[in-house]
Structures are given as structure tokens and as C-alpha cells.
Amino acid sequence: MGLNQTIFTWIHAGAGNRPLADALAIFFAEAGPYLLAVCLVILWFRVERDKRILLIEAAETGVIGLAFNQLAGFFYYHPRPFMMGLCTPLLTHVPENSFPSDHATLMFGAALYLLLNRGAVYGVPLLAAAFLTAWGRVYAGLHFPFDMAGSFLIALATAGLMLRLSRKSRIISKLNFRLNRGIELIIGRFTHNLG
Known about the structure:
CATH architecture: Up-down Bundle
Radius of gyration: 18 Å
Helix content: over 70%
Strand content: under 5%
CATH superfamily: Phosphatidic acid phosphatase type 2/haloperoxidase
Distance between the termini: 62 Å
Order of helices and strands: HHHHHHH
Number of strands: 0
CATH class: Mainly Alpha
């Protein structure tokens, strides 16, 4: 048994027999991207107006990371643990490529972008949620630990690329400024109609 399977077996041990750990793993394994969306929306209303662009760029980083995941999956295929008969997953999932994890890449990408852009106040809680999501997906039998390591590296590279592009590219800066303004207008109209 290789290192990846050994670590998986250690993390997954007891799955299905520990109600609290099972519930937490299922929650984070499924809810990670939704937590990210909710956190970004809450932060949108809590941060200063000039910091909102960071939230847009963090979301973009996660989405761009997903595109890189598709490329990585095109060149490297690895079955999921349950496809190899190593476990019975806590969640039903289609049998598809395990490497890398879309959930983890999305979460790590947004969190790492904020951390690299001096947004530690926002990035640290998101990074903690990303690690819990990664743990939950491994514990639940959906991924291997190396899938999460690959997701982290893809997210880190994407965050670095996005940070560089956001600082160097006027086109991206203008697009993000316009996107920011559009979101503010939509939210402004929505809240005006409520009041």
C-alpha cells in the first residue's frame, strides 16, 4: 500500500462508526462551497467599500482554480477510494476522477488569495474552512489526501497568478471595478425595494 492509501486509511478509520465525526465530515464535505459563498456575501456587507474588490478577486481565483483542475484531470486520472474498494463512502458520489478536489481547490483558492493580498482577517477563517472541507472529503471516503495536496498547490499557484494579474493588468482591474460597481448597483436596488 502506498503512502497516499496509508494516510487515507488512517484518516478514514472509524468512518461510519463515529456519529459526531461522521456528521461533521458530511457537513464540511458537502457544504464547503456554500460556506464560501455565504462568507463572501457576509463580508461584502461588512468590509469597507474599497476592499470589496478583493472579495471578487478571491471568488475569481477559486473559479480559475476549477478550470486548472479540469486541465489537471485531463492529464492525470486517479480513481476515488470507494472505486478501488478501500471503503464505503459516507456520501453517494458518481465514480469519477479523484484528482484534484474541486471543493478544496475552490475553497483554498479564495482563502489563499485573501491571505496573499494582506487579507488575513478574512483569509484565515476561510483557510480553516478549506482544511475542514478537505478533511471531510477524505474522511467521507470521496478523496485521497494527495488529491487535497494537489488542490492546495493548484489553488496556491492560481492565487499567485491572480494576485499578479490583478496588480499588473489594467484590463482585469477595469473589469473587476465594473463588476464591483454592477454588484453594488444590483444590491442597492434590491435593498431599496425591500425598504
